[in-house]
Amino acid sequence: xxxxxxxxxxxxxxxxxxxxxxxxxxxxxxxxxxxxxxxxxxxxxxxxxxxxxxxxxxxxxxxxxxxxxxxxxxxxxxxxxxxxxxxxxxxxxxxxxxxxxxxxxxxxxxxxxxxxxxxxxxxxxxxxxxxxxxxxxxxxxxxxxxxxxxxxxxxxxxxxxxxxxxxxxxxxxxxxxxxxxxxxxxxxxxxxxxxxxxxxxxxxxxxxxxxxxxxxxxxxxxxxxxxxxxxxxxxxxxxxxxxxxxxxxxxxxxxxxxxxxxxxxxxxxxxxxxxxxxxxxxxxxxxxxxxxxxxxxxxxxxxxxxxxxxxxxxxxxxxxxxxxxxxxxxxxxxxxxxxxxxxxxxxxxx
Length: 350
Prior knowledge:
By secondary structure, this protein is an alpha/beta fold. The protein has helices spanning 5-11, 93-103, 129-143, 161-172, 187-193, 203-218, 233-237, 242-254, 269-272, 299-308, 332-349; strands at residues 48-56, 59-67, 77-83, 107-111, 149-159, 176-182, 225-226, 264-265, 288-293, 315-320.
C-alpha cells in the first residue's frame, strides 16, 4: 500500500495524536490509575503502590512501585521493570501488568519515560529511542536499590513500543536475567516505513520535515510536533488498521489519561527513522518470551524479532488466541492468559 504524506500522518494519528483534549475528565482515582481493578488505597497485608521520583541524567522521573502482599523490607523479592507503550503512561497498561506482577509476588516498577507523562524534560514529548532505552536502564538502577529487591533476580517486561526498547536494553544490560515483550511494536521501522510499509513513498519528505524542525529548534524557534492533529470518530472508523482504530478507543476514551499523548517532536524522527529494535537480536542471551495476540496486525514485528534472537537457547513465542494488539492491554481474559504465561516463564527463569 502506497500513500501520500498527508494520508500517512492520518494513518499514524492514533499513535501520534494529542489525546490530552480527549482526556480532560476529572481524575477521581487517588493514584490516577485508569485500568480495571486498580489499587485505590494501600492496605496492610495486600499489594500496595508507592509513587516515587528519582533523577536520571538530570531529569526528574515519575514512577510507581508495586509491592506484593505482606511485603517485608527485610526479605528478598524478585523484581520486574515494566516499560510502557509509545505515548502511554505508567497509569495505563504498564501499571496494570505491574500490579498483576506484584500480585504474583514480584516487586514491579513502571515509570513515565523522560520528556513524557509526569516525568520532566524539555521540550515535551521528545521521543528518541536512546532516551527510552536509558529510561529502562534507569528503572533498573532505581529498583535494584529498593528495599527488599534481590538485584540478582531482575526481569524486564516491555509492552508495545516499550517492548521494542526492552529488546534493545536487554541486548547489552545483563542485569536483566529474563526479558519478555507483549504486543511488541518496532517504533523505528514503523516511523520510517509506515505501518505495514504504508509510508515508503514519503520517507524522504518526512526526513526533510524532521531536519527542518531540528534546525528551527536549534535557532530558538518553535517546537514542531508530528501528527498533532485531532481526528473525528468517522475518520478513525475509516482507518484501515485495527491498531489505530482500537488505539483511539483505548487511549482517547476507555483508558484516557491527561498525561498520555502520542504527539512527539518532529525532530525526534531523525533518531526514530534510523532505529530498528530487531537489529543485534543475537546479543540477547537471556531467556526470552515474546507474546502477541493471534489477531494482532502488529504480529509481524514480534515474529521478525523472535526469529532473529539466535543468541538464546531459551526462547518462546506465545500467541494469545483471538486477541488483537490493543486488546492485550485490558481485556480480562487476554490479560489473564498473558499473566499466566509470564508467571510460568518468569517463575522458571527468574
